[in-house]
Amino acid sequence: MARIVCGHFDETLKADAALRALMDAGFARGEIDSFYNSPPGQHATHPLGGDVGADAGARRAGPGAALGAAIGAVVGALLALIAMRAGALPAEGWSLVSVVFGAGLGAYVGSFAGAVGRMKRAAPPSVEPKKAIDAPAGRMIAVLVARPEQEPRAIDVLRRCGARHLWRAEGTWRNGSWLDFDPRGPLAAI
Predict the structure, then answer these.
(1) What value does the mean pLDDT take over residues 143-157?
(2) Domain range list for the chain
(3) Which residue, of 3, 111, 123, 169, has the fewest CB within 10 Å?
């Protein structure tokens, strides 16, 4: 595994200046990689898209929607029957349609209410500190630091050129590229 120092830039001009400054500081072009990191949640690491199967707050929404739909269907059908008895809905010829429509409308409203109600009561996010952070969207400059004396020089150049965040990482470096960069992987802040 190669040791890598990585800087995040909000502005392309600053990132381009960092590339030039790194080469002026003695880094070879094969020791510098530049790439764009997509915003968190948009890395397509999950088979259905995105980064995870479900948001932590939405994990309980499915069962809540099912329960809400069942309760809503019963309440909707009962309200339709009550409305027919009260004369608000025609009782002859339309009774089955009214009950089915009432049940469907109740299920629709109930599923929404059940899903939202369960999401509202979802467990709070874990308060355990994250060991690694997701890198924000923007231009990234990665520098291979093959020798220990190169690391402080790379950090200094990236800082002087306006890097918003600096990280250390371990990874596979080949032909001037950081091959196994994982936007959700462990990046240790400097």
Answers:
(1) 94
(2) 2-49+131-189, 60-120
(3) 123
